[in-house]
Amino acid sequence: MTLTANEQMWSDLGMDLKPHNQLMNALGPIYGEIYLSQKNRPQGMGFYDFVVGDIHGVRVNELREHAKNGGKVVATYCVFVPEEFCWATGAIPVSLCAGTQFSIPVAEEVLPRNTCALIKSSYGFKLGRLCPYVQVSHLIVGETTCDGKKKMFELMAEQHPMYVMEVPNKRGPAGRALWQQEVRDFMARIEELTGNKITAENLGEAIKKVNDRRREFKRLSSLRAADPAPISGKDALLATQVSMYDDVEREIQMMKALNDELEERINKGQGVAPKGTKRILISGSPMALPNWKLHHIVESSGAVIVGEESCTGSRFYDELVPEGIDNLDDMVTALADRYLKTNCACFTPNCERLEDIIRMARDLKADGVIHYNLQFCHTYANEAVQVDKALDEAGIPLLRVETDYSDEDAGQLKTRIDAFLETL
Ligand code: BJ8
Predict the structure, then answer these.
(1) Residue 340, ligand 1, Cβ within 6 A
(2) What's the gap in Å between 285 CA and the centre of ligand 1?
(3) How far is CA 414 from CA 319, 401, 405, in A?
(4) What is the pLDDT of residues 294-313, one digit of tens each?
(5) Whose CA is nearest to atom 14 of ligand 1?
(6) CA–centroid distance, residue 118 to ligand 1 (Å)
(7) For residue 143, what are the β-bridge partners?
(8) Half-sphere exposure of 387 (CA within 13 A, CB side)
(9) pLDDT tens sequence across 319-375
(10) CA 103 to CA 122: how far, in whole Å?
């Protein structure tokens, strides 16, 4: 049988071609139904359609070429991992997909079924040899954010070179000291992997670049405050998901062009849904590519999503690393402090997240918030009780949903979301 160029590449990367082809064949129609069926999309989304159209091809090929030329690829699962060290040393960081039901059955042969879908999907991609980004990477970086993840990483270490960063549970002086050391240890590990030294100069450049991408995402977020909304929540989510594994400079360009176009649309009063459409803020667990389930249901019910308080949303871009520091040690300290501001439910207490949700709901003029919880994620499920209380006090309507990646509960979710939208 003759292999296509992509199939040859996947085969060279040691992937299991048969199930992988099934995954690729399934993705096209799903994308068509969820994304391409939308009306009034910004032209700037054409780039993201192109990326998803060859999701395991063109970018993987770039990474492979980079590796052939002696470069390193560092795969990550969490926004706690400081990607700046990778860019500074010429390594390429890629955030791994963990958002599909497809990779879960193989994971459930090993992991307990009552584990969160994100963990099972991540593990299944490696175990089933279904993800070329995992295969092409020289190192996977995990973190101790939740118990399920850290135990899964021990198993994954049997399959792939792993490095795990310890994230503290509290942000006090002891937690900060631990994190400062963890960040420095990770920096040393990246220097060792790449054979390149981190200097004030190359780190300063990397900080500026990643901040520039964050600035474009912050700009996108503020543009989404317009009514009518200039872009759907689905499209904004997709741009975020893709930029987590794409080249940082290309993303700055693409996002800038998209934002310029959205600004024009706002000036002309154009949007993706009529003025006055119900506006929803999503808050909670991250939605790793290609998890578009909740956004699709909400927007198919006639509302528009205007923001995501999530690691595939504001937690990815809100905080900038301070620039203009010329001493390497101070630079690393400032960088570590920036990452410690990630308001993940793994922290106790995590009051800052409650403040973020309320601020975002107000800034984006959301009519209501949907709290998204991946089933079996205890940190977010328990924190949702406090989110409920804080939003109640702030007079912001909230719906709490708990789901996974399967379609089994889609009908039931839609009924609940329709009912919630009616009350707004
Ligand atoms: S900084 S949210 S990306 S840890 S959903 S695996 S917590 S059981 S993903 Fe996360 Fe980093 Fe925090 Fe963000 Fe565990 Fe919960 Fe699953 Fe989770």
Answers:
(1) no
(2) 6
(3) 33, 11, 15
(4) 999 999 999 999 999 999 99
(5) 146
(6) 8
(7) 165
(8) 29
(9) 999 999 999 999 999 999 999 999 999 999 999 999 999 999 999 999 999 999 999
(10) 8
